[in-house]
Amino acid sequence: MLKPKQALRSLPAYHPPLAGRDGLRLDFNENTVGCSPRVLDRMRRLDAEDLARYPERQPAEEKAADFLGVAKSELLLTNGVDEAIHLICQTYLEPGDQALIVVPTYAMYRIYMMAAGAELVSVPAGQGFQFPSTDVRRAITNRTRLIAIANPNNPTGTIVSTDELLQIAACAPSAAVLVDEAYFEFCARTILPQRHERPNVFVARTFSKAYGLAGLRIGALIGDPGQMSVLRRVSSPYNVNAVALACLPEALNDQAYVQRYVSEILHSRARLENALKTVGISFWRSQANFVLIRVGSSPSDAKGFTERMRKRGVLVRDRSADYGCEGCVRITIGPREHTDQLLAALHETIGELGIARGVSLS
Q1: All structural domains of the chain
Q2: pTM assigned to the model
């Protein structure tokens, strides 16, 4: 009888709750207002011939490399950061290798690592979800072949210093160290200028968040030219679709639009955090476009909170299944008008559940 390979038989399924998302989308860390109008205009100018041809990645790749200040040989455009993670796992992991993550973190690291047949090593985050640099270095062995670190981390919003990342890369010279900077625009801190110090460091970027292109599925992977040449051989030459490749240059050209959006998100993030502090709701200070809050001590508390918010037209994400996140909910940040709607729904929900001090949110 036909059977999948052994590594896939116990693979955990990832079921993002994408169905029935009616309401204000504060559950998936998406851009809540959409992409630049220039992107939409470029999309409208696509014709039948553009869609009939296989996509040519090089022009958009050159534009992205120039924008990020890296050589063309150092960058590969990918079908979202998910493909970048998958390519790294397929390139560097074999059955019996060890792959290391710090939990809680993005679920797809674990899934792709396990699918490659690697032994997963999960290092718990420190107190307050601080990054456990010492514990990570201690967990590295001669079998460690991949370390994946989201920076800022999802779902906690915490960040790791560049020095710590480089120290980890130095301790694991035989391992690929993937630094996933999906939320870079909201913290403006990156390892990109220092990546040359350690040739085993890779940097991933996405255009799904600040740029509002999640539906087009386009990201970038940057690394040592010699390593990237191998990753190119693993990647399909047509991995990014023609629409995404046509629109990316326009998105990159409209930095004024991106910066206005990011500025609004940073203002709203501070506003939400201040409101949560005022009413006594526990949260973790974030360097991303979301905030993780604790609404109770059990998964049922988080479920009840998300259901009541949904009834008020606001979607937030229950993160109770993540390590150390029992009773936690993640809230994506939107611009001012979305934050007005969020705070109104929060005020009613926490009052209904009796989980705050009774102080009004504003």
Answers
A1: 22-30+256-353 (3.90.1150.10), 37-253 (3.40.640.10)
A2: 0.95
